[in-house]
Automatic annotation (TrEMBL):
Residue ranges annotated for the PIF1/LRR1 pleckstrin homology domain, each copy included: 1-114
Function: Substrate recognition subunit of an ECS (Elongin BC-CUL2/5-SOCS-box protein) E3 ubiquitin-protein ligase complex which mediates the ubiquitination and subsequent proteasomal degradation of target proteins. ECS(LRR1) ubiquitinates MCM7 and promotes CMG replisome disassembly by VCP and chromatin extraction during S-phase. May negatively regulate the 4-1BB-mediated signaling cascades which result in the activation of NK-kappaB and JNK1.
Official protein name in the record: Leucine-rich repeat protein 1
Cited Gene3D superfamilies: Ribonuclease Inhibitor
Location within or outside the cell: Nucleus
Subunit structure: Component of the probable ECS(LRR1) E3 ubiquitin-protein ligase complex which contains CUL2, RBX1, Elongin BC complex and LRR1. Interacts with CUL2, RBX1, ELOB and ELOC.
Any one GO CC term of the record: nucleus
Gene name linked to the record: Lrr1
Organism name: Circaetus pectoralis (black-chested snake-eagle)
Keyword terms of this UniProt record: Leucine-rich repeat, Nucleus, Repeat, Ubl conjugation pathway
Length: 412
């Protein structure tokens, strides 16, 4: 007899006889007779699931909720409960009747058994992979999310924090939590090892955790929408998310873009419109974008003739050592150097000559046409401009003088 339902085998003892304590994926094979070569009880696993004998082996039936399609058959050996749910009530009653007669030793030929008919594809419920919630009243408060979810959208739900149940969805590829009230991101988002798209548009975020940048998101995250939040700066570690293809930072309070943004080698779409950016980082030149939108930022007017001089002459021993470490590509790490020195080396500047400089440098801003880094550029302002100021660094007076000579000649 075939009964369409969910089956859960629950062990009442320690998980012996090859049975696990609880497992919704367990398939129970109930034998109404006694097949040759098997002892009563059995309980051994096979390729089809858990094999359980019924004859003279039933301890108790639990049928209080049979009208709801639920029942439990308690076996003596092994000590397990076979929990049935989501069954047709009439079919379940017939099934339990056959199991009761088999337990009492009724000849199998006299049991009310029907011919086995394979279930149709339309009758088999497929694992749910997508769930879209667009209102607070539809948000599940008492039921768990299906563990098979690959795409979850929970927008306009007035969420103040990310639901910890969401962080258990290990197959999740796309998470959309836009239009909520989320203020902080838990580091455990990094445990979603398959996450490719994260949409946090229109929340109350003030920061993006450096811990997230050091998580498995480094290898999986391709789309990130942080637009319409309250973020003022992104952490140094942000550029470790090197699989990013599409990054949206519009309508925040950003006063700078990530220092090493040029490390995002896969980045093709970048929008940071309507922020508070005065200029672009030097590393911006390394990007290779398809689309760029920096409209509505208060970019400063560049003036290469008014440098910010931070030179220390003679160079300190620390500066010399740092420059040599980077220029000669000497390996370093927290196991060799104090962590604060490693952090300083990670944000070292690069002179126009290609050499490194740490805290001794000359800084200026120059004009860059954004078409040098992007195929399509949204106008920077209402005047039709596609140029923006970008920072340049020089490791010495000589390097700055050579640049100045070229600049005056080209503008003379």
């Amino acid at each position: 007899m075939r009964l369409q339902c969910e089956v859960e085998v629950v062990s009442r003892l320690l998980p012996t006889c090859g049975l696990r304590g609880r497992g919704r994926g367990t398939r129970a094979l109930l034998s109404l007779g006694r097949p040759p070569g098997r002892a009563r009880g059995g309980g051994g696993g096979n390729s089809g699931g858990v094999y359980l004998m019924v004859q003279e082996n039933i301890e108790r039936f639990f049928t209080r909720f049979v009208e709801e399609g639920k029942a439990t058959v308690r076996l003596r050996e092994p000590a397990v409960d076979v929990c049935l749910s989501k069954a047709n009530a009439s079919n379940l009653k017939n099934f339990l009747s056959a199991v009761r007669l088999a337990h009492q030793g009724t000849d199998i030929g006299a049991l009310p058994l029907s011919t086995l008919v394979p279930a149709k594809n339309s009758e088999v419920e497929k694992p749910k992979t997508k769930m879209i919630i667009t209102s607070r009243r539809d948000y599940p408060l008492t039921k768990n999310f299906p563990y098979s979810l690959e795409h979850l959208q929970a927008s306009y739900c007035k969420l103040a924090r990310i639901d910890m149940r969401v962080l258990c969805l290990k197959k999740l590829r796309k998470l959309d939590l836009s239009h909520n009230h989320i203020k902080q991101l838990p580091a455990t988002i990094g445990d979603l090892i398959c996450l490719q798209e994260l949409n946090l548009h229109d929340n109350h975020l003030e920061s993006f955790s450096g811990a997230l940048c050091n998580s498995t998101l480094q290898k999986s995250l391709q789309f990130l929408d942080l637009s319409q939040n309250k973020i003022k700066a992104l952490p140094i570690q942000f550029c470790q998310l090197r699989e990013l293809v599409n990054l949206k930072l519009d309508d925040n309070e950003l006063i700078r873009l990530p220092f090493k943004i040029g490390q995002l080698g896969h980045l093709r779409f970048l929008s940071a419109a309507r922020n508070k950016l005065p200029f672009l980082p030097s590393d911006f030149r390394k990007l290779c974008l398809e689309n760029l939108d920096l409209f509505g930022n208060p970019f400063e007017q560049p003036n290469p003739l008014v440098p910010n001089i931070q030179l220390k002459i003679p160079l300190t021993l620390l500066e010399c050592a740092a420059r040599a470490t980077i220029n000669y590509r000497i390996p370093y790490g927290c196991h060799l150097l104090p962590s604060h020195l490693c952090e300083d080396l990670e944000v070292a500047k690069t002179c126009q000559c290609g050499s490194a400089c740490l805290s001794s440098f000359i800084q200026i801003t120059v004009t860059m046409n954004l078409h040098h880094v992007a195929h399509t550029v949204v106008l920077v302002d209402n005047m039709g401009g596609t140029e923006a100021p970008i920072i340049c660094y020089f490791c010495s007076l000589d390097c700055y003088s050579q640049f100045l000579d070229r600049y005056l000649q080209s503008n003379g």
